[in-house]
């Protein structure tokens, strides 16, 4: 099969979504399928590093995602993906690559125009699905007068397809022929009744950089992931140093992709990047923002966590699920003060009930089919 992958059209970097597609594409390539990505920088650079063919286009650069994010509308608005002229341009770029490549299926994630382009070309569409995009779980009470993205979705569907849609999430989520959830039923149970959906479990894109260049891993190591959170600040770094002292920990902290790598003190080291999937098996705990990819990585590797999602609806959901599964704690920003945070980290590291729960979650995730199941679902479109 010839498979066209369409990731997020964002120029601000959306690594979690890209890694999911990367994992599926690697399995598809291993089976002999031809893969082409239609992607914008910086995503396109990551894909080329993994030896994939990429057709570039110009992405949009969003605003500050550290603001309050109540639903999928806020996500696309913050990413500046609410511009009708850009949607029209993206549809034209997609038409060109589809006409040239002639795919047997399109695999899309958070691509608002993918449904339109797939239907226009008569190509089956596989969409990545999550709680964050499920129309049933948005908050219409936040938009009593409607939303410009709904108007844009209606205009686009009418103009290009002659069809009627009611809302933007309907265009983004419901119209795919197959849907792939990169999680498992115990984590996102609300997706169980979505037609055509397959849970495949954790998708690891194998974008490996190795552990060889890292210092020896200390005892009681905790990774703190601060690179995309509103609470990434000098004050937080000082709080982590004091937290490590109070809880007798060693903390390795990812600050941001362009940050420095330095030893703050004997207990805290700052990094611009850490290979999470390779490092987590050697960690005792994780402090992070509640993003889905990192949530599932912690569960897959049976690492207990403290999730501080701030005011991001999807991350709040993930933090709630981690706590409900008994695999960690949903923390507030006030919990990031040294005394409170040291107690939370000590608890998740030392509590045998949390350790047992993370082991059970890991067993469930490792029993899922992963990327192989995703490609099976795509190949099923030929039946």
UniProtKB/TrEMBL annotation:
Pfam families recorded: EryCIII-like_C
Name of protein: Erythromycin biosynthesis protein CIII-like C-terminal domain-containing protein
Coiled coil residues, start to end: none
Gene3D superfamilies named among the record's database cross-references: Glycogen Phosphorylase B
UniProt keyword list: Transferase
GO molecular function (one): hexosyltransferase activity
Residue span(s) of domain Erythromycin biosynthesis protein CIII-like C-terminal: 258-376
Organism: Streptomyces mimosae
GO BP annotation list: antibiotic biosynthetic process
Source domain of life: Bacteria
PANTHER family referenced in this protein's UniProt entry, alphabetically: STEROL 3-BETA-GLUCOSYLTRANSFERASE (PTHR48050), STEROL 3-BETA-GLUCOSYLTRANSFERASE UGT80A2 (PTHR48050:SF13)
InterPro entries: EryCIII-like_C, Glycosyltransferase_28, UDP_glucos_trans
């Amino acid at each position: 099969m010839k498979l066209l992958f369409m990731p997020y059209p964002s120029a601000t970097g959306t690594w979690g979504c890209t890694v999911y597609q990367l994992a599926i594409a690697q399995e598809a390539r291993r089976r002999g399928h031809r893969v082409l990505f239609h992607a914008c920088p910086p995503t396109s650079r990551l894909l080329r590093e993994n030896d994939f063919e990429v057709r570039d286009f110009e992405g949009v650069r969003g605003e500050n995602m550290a603001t309050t994010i109540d639903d999928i509308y806020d996500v696309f608005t913050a990413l500046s993906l609410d511009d009708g002229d850009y949607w029209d341009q993206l549809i034209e770029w997609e038409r060109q690559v589809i006409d040239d490549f002639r795919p047997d299926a399109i695999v899309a994630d958070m691509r608002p125009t993918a449904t339109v382009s797939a239907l226009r070309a008569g190509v089956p569409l596989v969409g990545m699905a999550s709680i964050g995009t499920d129309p049933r779980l948005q908050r219409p009470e936040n938009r009593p007068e409607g939303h410009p993205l709904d108007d844009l979705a209606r205009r686009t569907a009418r103009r290009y397809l002659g069809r009627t849609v009611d809302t933007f999430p309907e265009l983004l989520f419901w119209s795919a022929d197959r849907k792939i959830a990169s999680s498992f039923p115990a984590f996102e149970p609300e997706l169980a009744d979505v037609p055509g959906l397959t849970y495949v479990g954790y998708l690891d894109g194998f974008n490996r950089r190795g552990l060889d260049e890292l210092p020896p891993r200390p005892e009681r190591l905790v990774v703190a992931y601060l690179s995309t959170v509103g609470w990434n600040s000098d004050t937080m770094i000082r709080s982590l140093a004091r937290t490590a002292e109070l809880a007798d920990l060693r903390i390795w902290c990812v600050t941001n992709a362009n940050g420095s790598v330095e030893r703050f003190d004997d207990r805290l080291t700052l990094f611009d990047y850490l290979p999470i999937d390779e490092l987590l098996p050697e960690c005792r705990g994780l402090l992070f923002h509640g993003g889905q990819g990192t949530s599932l990585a912690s569960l897959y590797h049976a690492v207990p966590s403290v999730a501080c999602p701030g005011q991001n609806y999807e991350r709040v959901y993930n933090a709630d699920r981690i706590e409900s599964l008994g695999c960690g704690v949903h923390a507030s920003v006030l919990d990031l003060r040294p005394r409170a945070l040291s107690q939370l980290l000590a608890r998740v590291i030392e509590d045998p009930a949390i350790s047992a729960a993370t082991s059970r979650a890991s067993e469930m995730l490792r029993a899922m089919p992963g990327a192989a199941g995703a490609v099976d679902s795509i190949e099923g479109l030929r039946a």
